[in-house]
Predict the structure.
Amino acid sequence: MSQILNEKLGKLTKDEQHLWALRHTAEHILHQAVKDLYPSILLAMGPATDEGFYFDFDHSPKGKTPVKISDEDLPRIEKRMQEIIDANLPMIREEVAPDEAAKLFAGNPYKMEWIDEIKKRGEKVTIYWTGEPHQPGSMVDLCGGPHVKSTGEVRAFKLLSVAGAYWHGSEKNKMLTRIYGTCFPSKKELDEHLHNLEEAKKRDHRKLGKELGLFVFSDLVGAGLPLLTPKGATIRRILERFIVDEELRRGYQHVVTPPLAKVDLYRTSGHYPYYKDTMYPPMKVDDDELILRPMTCPHHFMLYKSQSRSYRDLPVRFAEISPQFRYEKSGELTGLMRVRMFTLTDAHIITPPKKAKAEVLAVLDLIDYINKCFGLVKGTDYRYRLSLGDRKDNKKYYKDDAAWDKAESVLREVLVESNAPFFEAPNEAAFYGPKIDVQMKNVSGKEETAFTVQYDFVMPKRFDLTYIDSDGKEKQPVVVHRASMGALERTMAFLIEHYAGAFPLWLAPIQAVVIPIAERHNDGAQMIVDALKAAGIRVESDTRSEPMQAKVRDHTLQKVPYLAIIGDREIENKTVSVRKRGMRELQALALSDFIAQLVHEIEQKTN
RNA sequence: GCCUCCAUAGCUCAAUGGCAGAGCGACGGUUUUGUAAACCGCUGACGUCAGUCCGAUUCUGACUGGGGGCUCCA
């Protein structure tokens, strides 16, 4: 642990190291303040982070009356922190023998657990004093640092929120109280950071989804079950058509299979024991048990098995816009990001092992193409995660060490060869094999898997998938599972946030609004609408009895890409006055030129 | 699921242990307008179920839904 930290610190610039030390110190000031205000509380642990710092407290130690800390208490804690800062206490490092440390932290099981570990390694314990060592009123904590010299150097900090967090991150352990805060070298930088957080909230897909009328939720329908409005459904339809067309172009065959099946299908696949908790309970129908599908793979395997397959037919690439159902825990649901019924742009590529690598490469190429169309930049907007298994964990992962080694090295080679920025994540694989995940950050900086490519050597065995090779012998293929455009719900959430609701023309649910200035221009406006519709443009006219300024304002707020104003002048000159989103100056265009411009822009998929 | 906070009209927000108020929207009318909000009128809400109280939108609890986290995940 400390080794990893040291490596990380070694790579930081001087300024970054200073920031790290400041945040670490702020964290000590926090727990000192909390201990002052709530003497019965126990310190667990807390780090400095890229965004600030946090600390976990046990608010209800054994034998003590539990205390409750809520957001309302933060100002009080901040005030106490400021007093500690004003006192300008020194931060003093000391190395002590584990047994001596044990005396200092007697009665704190969290610290003792840590000290025991250090003792087992035969190392000394590094502690930090806030104030003079071993003096009454001085605070001490187990900590490797680094810190600034004294608390007075912390000039700009803010506590942000209170949260629950499990000790060691395991839901089997006790839930502790976590306090998040942040800290910067100057007030100005802190304010800037807080301002950025506010700005980020404005592009939250849940807020924009409501403001732009893209989707809603209903208490009666249920949590995690979004209803797409006509506008939201339009975006979804564009995405579907786009991905289906692109996949057909790239040699996929699109199929349709039912979103429910017998439970036995999932027993055969082996999904059932792994996914039971997130699957909806079986429905008894006559003598069968049916289940809403949590994934599509077995359906596609049944299609594959419906006839004998020759090596000449392989790879077979079955794709589907596939609704699937997972009972996510209530606390995990978030807008369109995480829902209980989602639509995966799914496919299963069944291929001889030796062609698997080329197939994975082709999938990465497709993903890069899709992201390019979305204006997403590799490395900044998304990065790859090589999600690996754990040979020791036979419960979570199918046991076949040689197959895992092979599969992981194939995926790693693909990433290296395609020059993709990636990082490796142990213990993130599917139970049937390793994956390459395309990771994107949402508006609050949380990283989620957007798209995925998985190498599967287990299902072919389970389902006895075979093909006849050129030597006439029956062989076993491997399966590449992939979601090229991920789950449409989640992808929409990412796109809403990425574009801040100002969709490029090809994705905009309403591409243009024609605005007649007065009632006598309504017919003229309708002619323009008809012409644009004939060219395939999603257009509406706004014939409300409102001033033109009001109409311009409304559609500007709705982030409509193009407004076309029609009045006496335009009708006389046979033009339209075009106002493009985000542009001040207007363009007077012949109708045919306007249409040509729109059609071109849609084809280019540019902004 | 767990910790914590929240829930007032279609939306954004007030107020209150004793008959809930505004702006926008919707609706009806007047107006027919030159690039980010015309005018008049009218409509409309205390999430659900219990409890405390003479009386609950307000206090308590449960449920439902939502936010911030944890766990989990496409």
In short: The two ends of chain A are 46 Å apart (CA to CA). The longest helix of chain A spans residues 14-37. Chain A has 19 helices and 27 strands.
